[in-house]
Amino acid sequence: MNRPDFEVRAGYSLTSEIYAEDSSLSNALSRQAFVAAGLFRAARGLTLNVSDVFLHDRNTNITAQGPSTGRQESWSNTFSPGLTWEMTPRSSLSLGASYSALRFLGDGAGQDSDTYEFRSALGYTFTAGLTGTLGYNFTYLNLESEQSSTTHNPTVGLSYRLTPRSLGP
Q1: Per-domain residue ranges of the chain
Q2: pLDDT for the residue numbered 74
Q3: Whole-number Å distance between alpha carbons of 35 and 31
Q4: What pTM was computed for the model?
């Protein structure tokens, strides 16, 4: 659904698997994915957004973090709210956060985890084609085994649009 003040998008997919050699591995709902996103233009220059992604897999081999876990059932869910504030016609501030849960079912080698993320970016448009960005991202990964990881990622960047856009009045 797309309206001037808001947008809503959603999708669902599933995969069925049939095994000829070992029919015990067959499953009508082997993999499922649900994605939803919304955007609301709360006021002139202020846009709020939210998204959610849910994945369920009865045969997890590779997780989002990368390690192979063998044949194990898992699910994950990531919820991400955010906002963009156009402070002036040339400058904007984007803030976002996300929470991800990854869970493994059964007695396999997978390890449950929770991931918390914060994102920020301050952009300034120098010309119709050239924009500069300063940002900071923070990620905290908490594993079930009481291990954790923290990542700080400051960013500085420039982007150039080959097709210029209007800066407004």
Answers
A1: 37-160
A2: 87
A3: 14
A4: 0.80
- Which tokens in the block code for residue 94? 């984007």
Q: Exposed/middle/buried for 71, CB within 10 Å: 0-12, 13-18, 19+?
A: exposed
How far apart CA 86 and CA 47 sit, in angstroms, is 9
User: Which region, left, alpha or beta, applies to residue 167 given φ > 0 means left and ψ of -120 to 50 means alpha?
Assistant: alpha
CA pair distance 27, 18, nearest whole angstrom: 7
Q: Nearest Cα to 11, choosing from 54, 44, 59? A: 54
Collapsed DSSP state (helix, strand, coil) of residue 25: helix
Calpha distance 119→97 (Å, rounded): 6
pLDDT in tens, 69-109: 567 888 999 999 999 999 999 999 999 999 999 988 877 77
